[in-house]
UniProtKB/TrEMBL annotation:
Catalyzes the oxidation of glucose 6-phosphate to 6-phosphogluconolactone. GO terms for molecular function: glucose-6-phosphate dehydrogenase activity; NADP binding. This is Glucose-6-phosphate 1-dehydrogenase. PANTHER family: GLUCOSE-6-PHOSPHATE 1-DEHYDROGENASE, GLUCOSE-6-PHOSPHATE 1-DEHYDROGENASE G6PD. Belongs to the glucose-6-phosphate dehydrogenase family. One of its GO terms (cellular component) is cytosol. It comes from Streptomyces bingchenggensis (strain BCW-1). Keywords: Carbohydrate metabolism, Glucose metabolism, NADP, Oxidoreductase. The lineage of its organism: Bacteria, Bacillati, Actinomycetota, Actinomycetes, Kitasatosporales.
Length: 513
């Protein structure tokens, strides 16, 4: 095993220029703060196991949990075991588990507890000696943002943020990164007091999804889409992230945050940036960030936010044959909460490619079904030689990137209905991952954790992107704060009526995916 000076590990048995070879992490360990949280149990621990199971972690890989619990190492290992059994994507294999479990350690303590951080430092040193982690550690902050400053300063204070010669230290930061521009800037300042920009990996797990990475492949590895990917041919773009779930047990996190801050500020604006950006000079972090940033900076909000933004809150209703309660009846939510569980927004990307093309973004909990998609809807043909009665059922052409759950791409176009007349109707042409590939899609967190360990920053938003995204959302949130309450919508429907009205005013409709 050998490491390059840049901190990127290279397996000497593999030819690094062959991109088809599996990317395998070098000697390293991961420390998770907030190890008792939902994210850790449902996503991070299973992702670590799945990576190990796929042979993508080094033999001495070590996992350290840090939390305010009176646990021994084996209690922590048991928690990881249960999480893996319940949520891992790949089959459970005793030998993989045993090897992984040998590298598990637990450090009990509060975030401001010096004794605990001293113990963490000793644990890291012990793992270096016993398991060959070579001083390479990533610190995953899966904790509410109010704890970021304390944790990063403690890492600094106890010498954990500085790598020794030839090794690396990285910080992984979960969203939400602040709740507005000012708080995000403050957090950024604290994080950068301790970590250099290339040590910080901000998670937006949507970027770890195969279908999201495929947006760039679709656009820039092909010739047929890009010529029409602009204002001359595109009528509008709809980006939808609909969920059927409610807030579950996350009242403490969600209330006061709401749908727009929870997912528009990050996931949906990243999808917008990837859909609208120019071709990057290369597929490296610098080039990608540069192009995404240009889009975010070109985003223009409509002058009349009252007419072009909507927020809603779910009320009790029937979903999947079950009567579900409304947001205000959820445990931990006060009965007068004004938090949005639905948000829709019209934006423009004010540049030469997109001027005048509306981008409609919407998201919501307890909607009709779980679906995330980007629909690029094209203008109607400028002229039709057919009788209008022949084409009355014809919609606009559309290219729909189906992000989840039915991953793939659909193209909608008109086709002659078999028969003696020239009737034309919409049909679709579908690409489905499951049918075209035998390879399985890894979970987003598998990809992102592996990238952190490899030091590959392509799929992580930079500070500037986070701040630009808040600049877009802040005026909307401020407008909402001073203009009444969210409109109620019945659980299991497609959101508030105002959202339909918003598109109807523009002579358009939301898709019903
Ligand atoms: C998270 C949000 O970022 O994304 C959650 O905080 C949301 O509220 C989740 O449920 C959705 O992720 P996915 O991958 O299931 O679409």
């Amino acid at each position: 095993m050998s490491a390059t000076t840049a901190g990127q590990w290279v397996n000497p048995l593999l030819d690094p220029s062959d991109r088809r070879l599996p990317r395998i992490a070098g000697p390293s360990g991961l420390v998770i703060f907030g190890v008792t949280g939902d994210l850790s149990r449902k996503k991070l621990m299973p992702a670590v196991y799945d990576l190990a199971n796929r042979g993508l972690l080094p033999p001495g890989f070590s996992l350290v949990g840090f939390a305010r619990r009176d646990w021994e190492h084996q209690d922590f290992a048991q928690v990881v075991h249960d999480a893996v059994r319940e949520h891992a994507r790949t089959p459970f294999r005793e030998e993989v588990w045993r090897q992984l479990a040998e590298g598990m350690r637990f450090v009990p303590g509060e975030f401001d507890d010096d004794k605990a951080f001293k113990q963490l430092r000793e644990t890291v040193d012990e793992l270096d000696a016993a398991r060959g982690t070579s001083g390479n550690f990533a610190f995953y902050l899966s904790v509410p943002p109010k704890f970021f400053p304390t944790v990063v300063r403690q890492l600094k204070r106890h010498g954990l943020s500085d790598a020794s010669e030839g090794s690396w230290r990285r910080a992984v930061i979960e969203k939400p990164f602040g709740h507005d521009l000012a708080s995000a800037e403050e957090l950024n300042q604290v994080v950068h007091e301790v970590f250099a920009p290339d040590q910080v990996f901000r998670i937006d797990h949507y970027l770890g999804k195969e279908t999201v990475q495929n947006i760039l492949a679709l656009r820039f590895a092909n010739q047929m889409f890009e010529p029409i990917w602009n204002r001359s041919y595109v009528d509008h773009v709809q980006i939808t992230m609909a969920e059927d779930i409610g807030i579950g047990g996350r009242a403490g996190y969600y209330d006061g945050i709401g749908a727009a801050r929870d997912v528009i500020q990050n996931h949906l604006l990243q999808l917008l940036a990837l859909t609208a950006m120019e071709e990057p000079a290369g597929f490296d972090a610098e080039s990608l960030v540069a192009e995404k940033l240009k889009v975010l900076k070109a985003v223009k909000l409509p002058a009349d936010l009252g007419a072009h933004s909507v927020r809603g809150q779910y009320a009790a209703g029937w979903q999947g044959g079950e009567l579900v309660r409304g947001y205000l009846e959820e445990e931990g939510i006060s009965s007068d909460s004004g938090t949005d569980t639905y948000a829709a927004l019209k934006l423009e990307v004010d540049n030469r490619r997109w001027a005048g093309v509306p981008f409609y973004l919407r998201t919501g909990k307890r909607l009709g079904r779980r679906v995330t998609e980007i629909a690029v809807v094209f203008q109607r043909a400028p002229h039709s030689p057919f009788d209008t009665t022949d084409t009355q059922e014809l919609g606009q052409n559309a290219l729909v990137i189906r992000v989840q759950p039915d991953e793939g791409i659909t193209v909608r176009f008109g086709s002659k209905v078999p028969g003696t007349s020239m009737e034309i109707r919409d049909v679709t042409m579908d690409f489905a991952y499951g049918e075209s590939f035998t390879e399985e899609s890894p979970e987003a967190y598998e990809r992102l954790i592996l990238d952190v360990l490899l030091g590959d920053a392509n799929l992580f938003p930079r500070t500037e992107e986070v701040e630009e995204s808040w600049k877009i959302l802040d005026p909307v949130e401020n407008y909402w704060d001073t203009h009444g309450r969210p409109e109620q919508y019945t659980a299991g429907t497609w959101g508030p009526k105002a959202a339909d009205d918003m598109l109807a005013r523009d002579g358009r409709n939301w898709r019903r995916p």
